[in-house]
Design brief:
By secondary structure, the protein is an alpha/beta fold. Helix content is 32%, strand content 20%. It has three domains: 86 residues, Urease, subunit C, domain 1; 295 residues, TIM Barrel (Alpha-Beta Barrel), CATH 3.20.20; 91 residues, no CATH class. Strands 1, 2, 3, 4, 5, 18, 19, 20 and 21 form a nine-stranded mixed beta sheet that branches. A six-stranded parallel beta sheet has the order 9-10-11-12-13-17, sandwiched between helices.
Length: 495
């Protein structure tokens, strides 16, 4: 047993802090109260500390980058106080994989390095339990992943029989433990997915009491119509709907404000939320920066089109007329080309004797369209305001990666939740309210049972803070961070 004594407890419900002791037996909170004379195997002095439920990161990418397999401790989350992460976002998940292919995540991870020994969500859960994880992990089922199993990489409407198969796969995946479904409507192969297709699938989500998350079809020029689409889906289906990584792009502030006003006007018509994080830099796959006319087919098709001189000229013309500052892009990931990681696109291009327009094309060619860039394009003034909206959730939209010369870590990988809490403190938001938004609120929305609140009988996922800094973390009753030192323990569970 573990006994934490004399701490200020913020239980995650939004109630004010109260002083008390917490008794932990096995993986659960056994009792909360005053246990001055109680004996335990481990006694932790909580005096001067605040104890809160473990934080829940609602939008993560460790599954996309496959770091659940090569970096199972997920230390970047632990050091922030994150005890539960949610994957399967933006239409791509690790299951179901009836074809055995991880193609839906290949823009992020090295898919050939993982031995796929699962097909269903249930089998994936068994695999991850066997391997062990440092954090609790729950997954949505990706619309693009399921569609790939049925229609391959074709951008077309599904036939009636294919839709029947799709609905059966979705239903089975939800029964197997998926938290809901995600779409990545801004990604190449999902841009032509119809409203009617989504509507039919969301009937199943509604019947199962699950959640729907969506990467908008357009986050820039057409963000208003893309947001309207998400709101209509939420209203029609009644499903809790979360707009993924909603952020105000520089140059499109007026359109963003119009879209956000649309959200606020429709809060009473749909169960709508959005997630975001407190940073002005995006990590963007290069294919998503291409204009729509060349974003068709798979990466091989895109690369073939990029090699045509007439398409290169048209692409450069489009870039010149856009609001994208190519010179300022920083190469954050480049498959088999670690020597260029960390360079600006301007430096990369200069070294090859071309301007940044041709340099961008060169980058896609030498990486096979498998490159990531840092793009500083978020208006922080607007972002600071929406971060604390009643329907805002916090998602790092990041992965805990094993060190590699082929990737740069953005700040949000290690500092999303500390920075969020610091911003909340600056805005004079009570700590119990900012804690609620990253614990019990996401647990309720995603249907995560017996986590997110410090309550007798619930799982002992706990964070200890001193001077608003995470010092200790317990997951399922096991100490995983002590005095800011990460322990060699895989205490996570599959939720």
């Amino acid at each position: 047993m573990i006994l934490i004594k004399s701490a200020q407890i913020i239980d995650g419900t939004g109630k004010p802090p109260f002083k008390g002791d917490i008794l932990i037996k096995d993986n659960r909170i056994s009792a909360i109260g005053n246990f001055a004379d109680k004996k335990a195997d481990t006694i932790i002095n909580g005096s001067g500390y605040i104890i809160a439920p473990g934080f829940i990161d609602v939008n993560t990418s460790s599954d996309h980058y496959l770091s659940l397999f090569n970096n199972p401790k997920q230390k970047d989350f632990l050091i922030q106080g994150v005890t539960t992460i949610i994957g399967g976002q933006c239409g791509s998940s690790l299951a179901p994989l009836y074809s055995g292919s991880l193609k839906s995540v290949r823009r992020w991870g090295r898919i050939h390095q993982v031995n796929v020994d699962w097909t269903t969500i249930s089998e994936l859960r068994d695999t991850l339990k066997r391997l062990g994880l440092g954090v609790n992990f729950g997954t949505l089922v990706g619309h693009s992943t399921m569609r790939h199993e049925i229609a391959g990489e074709e951008s077309r409407d599904l036939t009636a029989s294919e839709m029947d198969v799709f609905k059966k796969i979705l239903e089975d995946s939800l029964d197997d433990g998926a938290l809901g479904m995600s779409t990545g409507l801004g990604h190449v192969l999902s841009q032509t997915v119809s409203h009617s297709e989504l509507k039919r699938l969301l009937v199943i989500i509604a019947n199962k009491g699950k959640v729907y998350t969506t990467h908008l079809r357009d986050e820039f020029e057409n963000i208003v119509s893309a947001t309207e689409e998400a709101l209509i889906i939420a209203k029609e289906s009644g499903v809790p709907t979360i707009i993924s990584h909603l952020r105000p792009a520089i140059g499109y502030e007026d359109k963003f404000k119009e879209a956000f006003e649309l959200i606020e006007k429709n809060l009473d018509k749909g169960n709508i939320y959005f997630d975001t994080n407190p940073f002005d830099v995006n990590v963007v796959p290069v294919d998503m920066m291409l204009p729509k006319w060349i974003q068709h087919g798979n990466f091989e098709v895109i690369l073939e089109e990029l090699n045509k001189e007439e398409n290169q000229k048209r692409l450069i013309k489009d870039f010149k007329n856009s609001k994208i500052n190519l010179d300022s892009l920083i190469i954050a990931g480049a498959k088999d080309n670690s020597i260029i990681v960390g360079k600006t696109l301007k430096e990369f291009s200069k070294n090859r004797g071309v301007d940044s327009y041709y340099g961008f094309i060169k980058l896609m060619q030498i990486t096979g369209v498998h490159a990531l860039v840092f793009r500083k394009n978020i208006n922080m003034d607007i972002l600071r305001e929406i971060m604390f909206h009643p329907r805002a959730l916090v998602g790092s939209n990041s992965a805990s990666l094993k060190y590699s010369a082929e990737f740069l870590k953005p700040e949000r990988t290690t500092n999303t939740f500390p920075k969020y809490l610091h911003m909340a403190m600056d805005k004079k938001i009570p700590l119990e309210e900012s804690i609620r938004k990253i614990t019990s609120l996401p647990a309720k929305i995603f249907g995560i049972k017996e986590r997110g609140i410090i309550r007798e009988g619930w799982y002992a996922d706990l964070v200890m803070l001193k001077d608003n800094k995470v010092t200790n973390v317990l997951i399922n009753g096991k100490s995983v961070v002590k005095d800011r030192v990460i322990k060699e323990v895989l205490a996570g569970d599959i939720i």
